[in-house]
Write a structure and sequence with these properties.
The chain has 401 residues and is α/β, with parallel strands linked by helices. The protein contains 12 helices and 13 strands. It starts with 5 loop residues before the first strand and ends in an 11-residue tail after the last helix.
Length: 401
């Protein structure tokens, strides 16, 4: 477990973007880099040593995820460069004739852009409507019920939304539909909940270890045993599904982070939920003391423990995040991959809340490395920011509240 959420005196509340590397993961990777530096495709002894560690890591991860690791129809784990590539492979790697491709505003941009590319290839688009609790379950049910008998569909689902933290588990009835394949992005959810592999049997599922103390530059796509995928980057590696020399050290770190996360999950959920609630109470009280109205986005919905999205009425979210940064508090306006966009978070807009909410919403995200002192100090510093807002020292958003 990493030692601190503070860096250079700042308070890091952006764990939904990336988490600190666990020391035990770092140690495992350093040892792998020292002893298994050879190319895992080389036939000599050092290459076989690297291959052994690579495949051992793959099996450990798949076992921890609940995948079927043996038998004729065993599941496969494909290592990729990150969650974006894994999501694109899971969506764009589909073989067979075009069908229906469905996705929603909850999904990461990597999923959405892949779905849009399938549409350009002749697939029929279906945007799943997000309800007021951030769920697409009803929309997915409706799609499944109305799917013509001669049509196949790929439905993209995100179990924990990185923009709002709202949780939306896949419906087993939809997953069992013989004409539907589910692609599940479990990237934000894995640290807090088992992947829905045993119960739902998703066709493909993405996780990435940089969200739970593991290394950057690697992710995994679980592929159900009977699922056929075409490579986006051809090559003999990764069962012929993803070409390119594998990083054994990253795979070892991935496996260590997965196993540690599973072992510590129950305690982590309790701790981080308590810290999130403490942070929310403190921030809303600080805003109120400055005469500002605050709202917890998705506060009535089931949420992952680590994310809180808060809107402060009439305040430009980007200006607020910059002001917080100047006070040493690291926040976000949405997913890190969309940080250059001036548009509000799509998942927040989709909730049907007043327009000011999306314009004013910022995200704070925590981890087990966050402490009570971190939370209290963040609230103290944000109280100073809120007072500056109330005094006219920060840009307000345009338009009516």
């Amino acid at each position: 477990m990493a030692e601190s959420s503070r860096a250079d005196g700042g308070i890091y509340l952006d764990h939904a973007a990336a988490t600190p590397l666990r020391p035990d993961v770092d140690d495992a990777m350093r040892e792998a880099a020292r002893t298994a530096f050879a190319n895992a495709s080389s036939p000599h002894a050092l290459g076989r040593r690297a291959r052994q560690l690579l495949e051992d890591s793959r099996e450990r991860i798949l076992a921890a995820l609940g995948g079927l690791a043996t038998g004729r129809h065993r599941d496969r784990l494909v290592f990729t460069s990150g969650a974006t590539e894994a999501n694109r492979l899971g969506v764009l790697g589909r073989s067979g004739p075009p069908g229906v491709i469905a996705w929603s505003a909850r999904d990461h941009a990597g999923v959405a852009t892949a779905a849009e590319e399938l549409v350009r290839r002749g697939w029929r688009p279906r945007r799943l409507e997000v309800d007021r609790l951030g769920s697409v379950a009803d929309a997915a049910d409706a799609l499944a019920a109305g799917l013509p008998a001669d049509t196949t569909a790929v439905i993209c689902l995100t179990t924990a939304c990185g923009q709002t933290g709202t949780v939306d588990p896949p419906c087993p009835a939809v997953a069992r539909h013989p004409q539907i394949d589910l692609h599940i992005d479990h990237t934000q959810a894995f640290a807090w909940d088992d992947p829905p592999i045993r119960d739902v049997r998703a066709a493909t599922l993405t996780i990435a270890p940089h969200k739970f103390g593991g290394p950057r530059g690697i992710a995994g796509l679980v592929v159900r045993g009977v699922m056929a995928l075409e490579p986006l980057q051809p090559g003999p590696q990764e069962l012929g599904i993803r070409g390119g020399t594998e990083s054994v050290a990253l795979a070892v770190g991935f496996a260590r982070a997965v196993e540690a996360t599973v072992a510590e999950r129950a305690a982590a959920v309790a701790t981080v939920t308590r810290l999130r609630n403490r942070l929310e109470v403190g921030l809303l009280a600080a805003a109120s003391a400055a005469g500002l109205e605050g709202l917890i986005v998705g506060g009535e919905a089931p949420r992952a423990p680590h994310v809180t999205t808060i809107a402060i009425a009439g305040i430009d979210r980007q200006s607020l995040v910059m002001a917080a940064d100047l006070e040493g508090v690291c926040l976000a306006t949405g997913t890190a991959c969309a940080s250059g966009s001036s548009e509000p978070a799509a998942a927040v807009e989709a909730l049907g809340l007043p327009a000011w909410v999306a314009r004013s919403a910022f995200r704070a995200s925590l981890a087990t490395t966050t402490t009570d002192d971190d939370v209290d100090e963040a609230v103290r510093r944000m109280a100073f920011v809120f007072r500056g807002i109330a005094g006219g020292g920060l840009q307000r958003s345009a338009g009516p509240r």
